[in-house]
Design a protein that fits this description.
about 325 residues; mainly alpha; P1 Nuclease; 16 helices; globular; single chain
Amino acid sequence: MASLLKIILVGIAILCSSWGFFAHKKINQLAVFTLPPSMSVFYKKNIDYITEAAVNPDKRRYTIAEEGSRHFIDLDDYGDSAIYKLPHYWTDAVMQFGEDSLQSRGIVPWHIYRVYLQLKEAFLIKDPDWILRASSDLGHYVSDAHVPLHTTKNYDGQLTDQIGIHGFWESRLPELYFEQYDFFVGKAKHIENVQLAAWQVVLKSNQAVDSVLQFERRLYELNGNEKFNFETKGKQTIKVVSESYARKYHEMLSGMVERQFRSSIKLTGDIWFTAWVDAGQPDLKTLINYRPSEKEIEQRKKEILQWKEKSVKARDHESIEN
């Protein structure tokens, strides 16, 4: 069974080797080290899966129609000051806008809370498969909420002639400057209200949208001729944003990407810890010899096959070309 699991993880790594998934994997991986020993004993044992499975929600966007809305929220579709006016609790929001309307504009802050509840229940019943799945998914949605362009309908600069800025901000910059970032974020702490914490992140991210777009627009006007070059990755030569252009944009952002990256790590660890505490702090040492069930292994294999098919048209923001 161990060898079969290794094959599955390698398969996931190959399928998700695109740099667009780099940050998600790193955030989940580093969040493990914020946990206390009573939790980390289980999480560190399964850190390879938690790291690789960080990209599962993005894979599901191409296989499950309802998955896409869980990654973003178009706040500007609700008018001015939407972040302050929108109901922070799902039931209240449905009462005011209707579920279809909410889904069409994105539900990431509400979904973070939903997955927190799933993780709490997984801890309550001490289901290791579910704990790992929910933890991995939760890290992904928390990270998405930290990306400013996940909070606007101009999610890839398509409304301002800046197509590709989404992948530039959340993929190219972390890939280039990850080694320079300080990821000492401290230990995970209990959160009194996970739902409100998710909304606070969305608010902070949304406040940065104008800077993300305007700084790149200004830079392009001055240095647009040096924006792209070609790099060889493996056997492929691809068009990418040049390092010189990326460096200038990164400096204009004054540490924004690093701050959001750090906050993603910290909040992911905080919510994992909160779910565990709220479930009564179950003894995870009893799960240390966990091996994925046959059902779980079959599910992981099925997801890989579904990802290859990409049967659902998803909201695309991975491209960095324009």
